[in-house]
Amino acid sequence: VGCDRSKNLVDICGEKNFQAFVCDALSVPIRSGSCDACISIAVIHHFSTAERRLATIRELARLLRPGGTALIYVWAMEQEYKNQKSKYLKEKNGSKDKEEEIDTGRAQSPLSDQMPDSSSQDSACSDRLLNDLKDEGCDAKPVADSRLPVHVNRTSFHSQDLLVPWHLKGGTKQKGESVDTVSFPAGSKELQELSPVFHRYYHVFCEGELEAACRSLDCVRVQKSYYDQGNWCVVLEKL
Q1: Residue 19 confidence (pLDDT)
Q2: Where is the composition biased (Basic and acidic residues) (predicted)?
């Protein structure tokens, strides 16, 4: 049984006759102790506080029967580990670096979380928001370091908390429609309108951070902790 925050992804599972439902990782509507095994791939790094990240691990453990196991993957701060670059960095000069796009509702590779290039739109949006506040009479003043950095595709991380741009192919086109019949020059207003950019929050984990969070819970035991292609991974056992 699978679950996801995205209804579009769950609908795709339904089309393939897989059992899946929409839910929140902080509150999974499954009976405690009813699962032999659970996996959480590329989920926990989207929660914005240490307390919420720990709560998701505790919720995962709640679902497990005694002796049950869970596998957790999160994106790593260290994209170069033991003198080896991750696949994410190695593909920087490949074809995937050329203004990648994703179809609305379709998932990227879960283990590498490959992302499209960043856009100058992030600063423009922040400036517009600031101007809107001023127009409404608010005494809005920029605060030093108040903006999260926007990550540049296929590069090392310089901050644990950041925004990663997602370019949605075709914008709000209906299912079955295509915008590929018309081509626009790169950077044009028409192309920007067809390919809106959304920014997703990420907290990339440093070495030992995920394992330490898991070890802080009395109800589980860490069986294994390891690095895999730009991800920190932990295998838990329910006590």
Answers
A1: 97
A2: 88-99
